[in-house]
């Protein structure tokens, strides 16, 4: 049985299900993670970034965002010397 969402909720759901919605790119995800780490006084090391990505993977439900986190994690693991990603 399907439950109807009220106006704003329905509009938000429609937006995220529409073709115009684009999940954040890996660079945007990395930027958000690095900002969060620095705001919390932590060094944005590969180890800290990987731990943060894994924590986010465990709580994310949106498949397109999950794919972005997986791609970001793969890029970090392929680039262990800390060269710029992207």
How is this structure best described in words?
This protein has 86 residues and is an all-alpha fold. It has a domain at 23-78: Single alpha-helices involved in coiled-coils or other helix-helix interfaces (Up-down Bundle), CATH 1.20.5.5260. Helices cover 64% and strands 0% of the residues. The chain contains four helices and no strands. It has helices spanning 7-17, 26-39, 46-59, 63-78. The chain is globular. The termini are far apart.
What descriptors fit this protein?
86 residues; mainly alpha; Single alpha-helices involved in coiled-coils or other helix-helix interfaces; Biofilm development protein YmgB/AriR; AriR
Can you summarize this structure?
This protein has 4 helices and no strands. With 86 residues, the chain is mainly alpha-helical. It comes from Erwinia persicina.
> What is the terminal-to-terminal distance?
44 Å
Given the structure, what is the number of helices? Answer: 4
Low-confidence stretches: none
Q: Helix coverage percent of residues? A: 55-70%
Strand content: under 5%
Please tell me the overall pLDDT: 79
Shape designation: globular
- Main sheet makeup: none
Based on the coordinates given, report the CATH architecture of one domain: Up-down Bundle
* E-strand count: 0
Rounded radius of gyration (Å): 16 Å
Helix and strand run = HHHH
CATH fold annotation of one domain = Single alpha-helices involved in coiled-coils or other helix-helix interfaces
| Name of the CATH first level of one domain | Mainly Alpha
In terms of structural class, how would the helical and strand content be classed?
Answer: mainly alpha
